Every structure is written in C-alpha cells, then in structure tokens.
C-alpha cells in the first residue's frame, strides 16, 4: 500500500479498542451531560471514518470480482460465493449491511476505464469527497444516491452533478440556508426535493412503476401470527400513517401527562381523568391501527358484499367450549386456529347463528341469526359513552366496537344497558390489562388495574357532553 502499511491500521484498531474499552467498562453514568454529547459526536466521527474504509474496501473487492473467469475472482480465491458473503465473513455484519456497503460503493467508487485503465470520476464525486472528509457515512451516501442515481438516464449529467455538489455542501453544513451539518434523514429529504425538481417529466413513468410494484402478501400462519409483506403507494402509506397517528392511544406520552386516581380526593369518582401508560411498541400500535380501520370498514355497511352479505368475519366454535371458555375457534378465512376470545369479540360485533351438528357431522338444526346492537342502539350508546370508555383513550365512537358487559353467550341482553364502547385494542386486551367494567343502573363504571389504582373503587365513566354539563351544573 502506498505510504501505508496494514500494520498501522492494525495498531490503530488495537488502540481504538483499548480506549473504547476504558470508556465502556467503567460505565458512562458519572459522565456529565456535555461530555456525554461530545462522546457521541466523536463516536459518530469514528464510525463515519470506519465506514469510509469499508466502502472503499468493498468497492475494490467488487472490482476484483467482476471478471467473467470465476476462478480468477477475488471472492472465489477466498472461498466465497459472492461479494456479500466475503463482506459478511470479514466484517461480521448482516447480509443487509453488506448490501448497503456495496450500494454505497457503487455510488462513490472510482471505476477503472476498460480502455486505458485510468480511474474514472465517481458517479457522485462531491459525495465521494464528503465521504473521504468524514462528513457522511453509509447512511448519508445512500440517502443521496437513492434519489440521484435514479435520474442518470433521464436528466443531463451536469444537472445531477450540480445536485451532488449542493447536497455535499448540505452534508458539510455549508448549504444555502446555513444549517448545521445534515443527518442522513435531512439529506434524503433534500435529495428527494432535488430529484423532483430535476425530473419533472419523470413523474408519470415513476407512477406507472409504483402502480405495478404495489402489493401486499399474506404468508402462512406461524405460532399465531400471519406474516405480511409488500409495498404501499405513497398516498396509501400517508393515509395509513394518519390513521396510526390518530389511533396511537392511550395518550400517555403527551405534554399534559396523566393524572392518577386519587382515592382520598372527594368527588374524584366523577370525571376522573386518568391516562394509563401505553406500553405497546410502535409496530404493535400500527398493527392495532390497521385492525381498527379494517374492522370499522367491515362494519360500515359501505363495502361490496360477498355472497350477498357484508364482508363479516365468520368463526366456528363448539358451544360447550364457548360457555366454558376453553378450546379454539376456527375460521374459513385463516388456517390458523384462533383463541377463544375471538369468538366472544365476534359475537359482540357481528351476529350469532347457532348451527347444530350431529356427531357424524350432519346438520340437524339451523337457528336464525341474532343480530346484536342495531344502528339505533349504537347511536344511543355512542351518545352516552362518546367513544372508548377506558380512561385516557381518545378513539372516537365511529371507530369503536360495542362490548357486551355480560357476554351474549352467557345470557347477556343486547340492550344499551349491557353495551359499552371499546376500541379494537381495549376490546381485545381488556382482561389482559385487568380493566373491569360493570353497569350500574345503565351507567358504565370501570375499575382500574391494581397497579394503577390500589383502592379498587368503581368509577363512572362517560364522555357524553350532555352528562358532563349536567355534572358541572350540579357542582356549581
């Protein structure tokens, strides 16, 4: 190597390991705030430098492995199938990280001319200089390359180079708005804006490509979970994100905070404002938001019918299992058995039809459908409850399901005095979270979990503006 021995790099690696070890073995708890931020800043710089070395190395490995003679390839000489395998074995990164290094190398690597052997300019020369200067790493390079390299066939080269220079300046903190050095997400935002400005005629081809690529696939159930994969159109993803934002509840992390029940406060029972913490992961919140939207759409009556009926989830369960709370539930729409709770929730939201089978499978009796909570009852319950009755949950009535306080399978009547509004999340995990609900002369009351309220008191809950106004009038 020119003016550099690999032993120097080995010595540097050993020194870095020793210094980092001294920092982390003792723990960072005693470090002051300013020093901790400086540690992160210096660590980020070290990371970008190492990533620069890896990008250059992966680019060179790829260059030496592109020959048509498999035996002459660098990867083959070291017993690897391809560049990704060699990178994974040497750096111990995942296949995804190896692919990211390879894509970054293609964007900033200087390839050799086939004719003269001379090094050619990089596809993004300004970003290459920013990489060598330590201003960007893998994330920054890919944030820019993803937008600009797609323009190469549709936009003049000079225009791409101008965008490359502007984005490199933004990465250094020398952009026109005098903003500090940009992180990868900000670079991606700027790069997307540049791509849209330079390729205004390319929106239609991109739209056709997007329409062709859109899709969602459901995999085979595994351990009670059906895997999902695919891609959404931007406007569909944006709408889904809006639904997620609206239904990411209970609101335990906003600026107002939560007010815990005070068992010693007079009048705390009425209108007590308690916001329990939401311990769901972001991915779980998105799942629950999608479930809420799907079940609300199925119950809306506006979707096309299937076999002359609304698209309703149909489940089958043995009546004895339903009453005993044991066993599993089956559906024609999914091969995976469902938990018994699914039958109770479907009974709350849909219809019950009893079909009696003989021991050998013959249908011996078909009962009539028992509809639950018609539209007039739902409107009345919505007026009384105003939405999900669990304190702190802001899901509105239109997105809620109606829950039988006393289950229909156990003789609970389909009457507003036995129905309350619950969102999809709280309807499914009511018992898991230990919330309890009862009706007191037609008014829903809740008992918070012991870890939220050790008093065990039952408290009326309502979001009806009429009833809240009446309560305020009585107190004044």
TrEMBL record:
Keywords, ordered alphabetically: Endonuclease, Hydrolase, Nuclease
GO molecular function annotation: endonuclease activity
The name this protein goes by in its record: HNH endonuclease signature motif containing protein
One Pfam family matching this protein: DUF222
Organism of this sequence: Microbacterium pumilum
Classification via CDD domains: HNHc
Domain of life, source organism: Bacteria
Domain HNH nuclease: 376-428
């Amino acid at each position: 190597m020119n003016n550099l021995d690999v032993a120097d790099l080995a010595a540097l690696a050993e020194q870095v390991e020793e210094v980092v070890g001294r920092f982390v073995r003792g723990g960072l708890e005693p470090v002051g705030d300013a020093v901790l931020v400086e540690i992160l800043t210096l660590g980020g710089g070290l990371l970008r430098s190492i990533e620069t070395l890896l990008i250059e190395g992966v680019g060179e490995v790829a260059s030496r492995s592109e020959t048509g003679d498999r035996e002459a390839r660098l990867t083959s000489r070291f017993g690897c199938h391809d560049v990704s395998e060699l990178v994974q074995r040497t750096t111990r990164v995942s296949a995804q990280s190896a692919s990211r290094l390879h894509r970054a190398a293609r964007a900033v690597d200087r390839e050799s001319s086939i004719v003269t052997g001379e090094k050619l300019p990089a596809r993004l020369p300004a970003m290459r200089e920013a990489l060598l200067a330590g201003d960007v790493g893998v994330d920054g390079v890919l944030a820019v390359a993803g937008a600009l390299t797609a323009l190469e066939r549709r936009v003049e080269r000079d225009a791409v180079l101008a965008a490359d220079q502007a984005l490199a300046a933004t990465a250094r903190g020398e952009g026109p708005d005098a903003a500090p050095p940009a992180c990868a997400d900000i670079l991606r935002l700027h790069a997307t804006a540049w791509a849209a400005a330079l390729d205004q005629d390319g929106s239609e081809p991109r739209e056709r490509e997007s329409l062709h690529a859109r899709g969602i696939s459901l995999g085979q159930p595994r351990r009670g979970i059906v895997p999902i994969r695919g891609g959404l159109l931007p406007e569909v993803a944006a709408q889904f994100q809006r639904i997620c934002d609206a239904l990411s509840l209970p609101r335990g992390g906003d600026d107002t905070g939560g007010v815990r029940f005070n068992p010693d406060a007079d009048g705390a029972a009425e209108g007590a404002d308690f916001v329990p913490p939401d311990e769901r992961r972001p991915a779980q919140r998105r799942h629950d938001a999608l479930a809420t939207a799907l079940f609300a759409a199925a119950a809306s009556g506006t979707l096309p019918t299937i076999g002359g009926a609304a698209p309703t989830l149909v489940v089958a369960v043995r009546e004895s299992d339903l009453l005993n709370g044991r066993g599993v539930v089956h559906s024609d729409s999914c091969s995976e058995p469902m938990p018994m709770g699914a039958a109770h929730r479907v009974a709350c939201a849909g219809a019950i039809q009893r079909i009696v089978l003989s021991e050998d499978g013959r249908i011996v009796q078909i009962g009539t459908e028992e509809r639950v909570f018609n539209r007039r009852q739902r409107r009345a319950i919505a007026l009384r409850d105003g939405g999900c009755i669990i304190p702190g949950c802001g899901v509105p009535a239109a997105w809620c399901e109606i829950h039988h306080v006393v289950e229909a399978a156990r003789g609970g009547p389909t009457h507003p005095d036995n129905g309350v509004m619950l969102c999809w999340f709280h309807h499914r995990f009511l018992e898991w979270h230990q919330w309890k609900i009862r009706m007191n002369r037609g008014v829903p009351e809740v008992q918070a979990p012991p870890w939220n309220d050790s008093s065990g008191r039952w408290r009326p809950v309502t979001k009806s503006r009429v009833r809240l106004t009446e309560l305020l009038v009585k107190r004044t």
